[in-house]
Design goal:
The chain has helices at 11-19, 27-40, 108-121, 141-147, 157-177, 248-262, 284-302, 306-316, 323-333; strands at 63-67, 74-79, 89-94, 98-102, 124-129, 153-155, 190-191, 196-199, 202-206, 209-211, 215-217, 220-222, 227-236, 268-274. It is of the alpha/beta class. The protein has a domain at 63-296: Metallo-beta-lactamase, Chain A (4-Layer Sandwich), CATH 3.60.15. The strands form 3 sheets. It has a 7-stranded mixed sheet, with helices on one face. Strand 10 (209-211) and strand 11 form a beta hairpin.
């Protein structure tokens, strides 16, 4: 089976494939997949999201983990919950008097943990850095900027342009699926062209990369801590989001990004998404991400059907979180095998051969 490009599939195939995802996946993950599909399909946000997913209560609160480091800077990672926060890492870089926040959570409610950590630190929030253009890393900005109204928000020029383009579609699906969050358009980051940030006189290097789970990534490297805050170039015990790297060239570019981070020889890497209990020293998170990409290539190259590929990867990664991300990628690569299963999948509300679904046909079953 040859690889297909995520950008090469008809609009209807992309949108319909998401309607076949099982009901057990977290609602936020579904919403973000749908928003990404609208962007990839060239939609302007006028299509409604797919039917709602059944969600089990998340027993865990946000996990806030101080990372002990020698020297003038300290790190604290606040990770979103598994069901409501996509296991997103928001990282505080803490100096003697200043703080920089890297990524801002997906929802205002999840961002409250970040606000509390910042207030408890007693530091002045100098800046917010957004590592890439996925909504689960910046839609919490609304709450954070309300608490810290004068803070500047930065990202690279390429990511700033991408966020401006993508936000309307993401905003619509958020508002329709999370009315309790009262989500409004988040403040958008400014384009920042300098190669570094500074915090209390310490340098933080910006590492622009061409591919992670979406094109254009901007991890941060802190030389004094030998640490990379990797954004979604690196995952930890979570299936990779591959819908924006579905062709071999995209995955090769992702591998090249991992090589660029490895060349920094960091002693610590903070993945953009990781399981609640994930701990791995040195380059191990990077190497695990590399191995997943290679295993995905191998499984698809050697598998004639979706189920064969899925079985190979689930056998290799039985405990990874969010298998719906794997399903989403495979159902786009194997559209002929992605027929809906009435016993498990979303009920159909429009004919399968109707790629131009109306908003009414795709209205969520809320």
């Amino acid at each position: 089976m040859g690889f297909g490009s995520g950008a090469g599939h008809p609009r209807g195939d992309r949108l319909q494939s998401l309607r076949r995802l099982p009901r057990t996946l977290p609602k936020l993950g579904l919403v973000l997949l749908w928003g990404s599909a609208l962007v990839l399909a060239g939609c302007n946000g006028t299509d409604a999201p797919p039917p709602d997913a059944t969600l089990s209560p998340d027993p865990a609160a946000l996990v806030s983990t101080p990372l002990p480091n020698p020297g003038p800077l300290q790190l604290q990672v606040i990770r979103g919950t598994e069901a409501e926060g996509n296991l997103v890492a928001s990282t505080l870089i803490l100096g003697a008097t200043e703080a920089i926040l890297v990524d801002a959570q997906a929802k205002p409610s999840q961002a409250q943990g970040v606000i509390q950590a910042l207030q408890a630190s007693g530091k002045t929030l100098k800046a917010i850095w957004i590592t890439h253009g996925h909504a689960d890393h910046y839609f919490g900005l609304t709450a954070i900027v309300a608490a810290f109204p004068d803070v500047p928000i930065y990202t690279t020029p390429a990511i700033a342009a991408e966020i401006q383009t993508r936000t309307p579609a993401f905003l619509q699906v958020f508002q329709q699926n999370f009315p309790e969050e009262q989500v409004t358009a988040p403040p958008l980051p400014m384009a920042y062209s300098d190669p570094t940030l500074t915090i209390d006189g310490e340098t933080v290097e910006i590492i622009p990369l061409t591919q992670g789970d979406t094109p254009h990534q901007a991890p941060l490297h802190i030389p004094s801590l030998s640490t990379v805050i990797a954004g979604d170039v690196v995952y930890g015990d979570v299936h990779l989001y591959l819908r924006e790297a579905l062709n071999p060239e995209g995955r090769q570019a992702w591998l090249a990004s991992l090589d660029e981070l490895a060349a920094l020889n960091p002693q610590q890497i903070i993945p953009g998404h990781a399981s609640p209990t994930y701990q791995a020293p040195g380059l191990e998170p990077l190497e695990q991400t590399r191995q997943y990409l290679l295993e995905f290539d191998r499984a698809v190259a050697e598998s004639a059907t979706l189920e064969e590929a899925r079985s190979a990867l689930m056998t290799r990664y039985p405990n990874y979180r969010y298998p719906f991300l794997l399903d989403s990628a495979l159902k786009t690569l194997y559209p002929e095998d992605a027929a809906p299963d009435p016993s498990q999948d979303f009920p159909e509300s429009a004919p399968e051969d109707s790629p131009e679904d109306s908003p009414e046909d795709l209205a969520p079953d809320l």
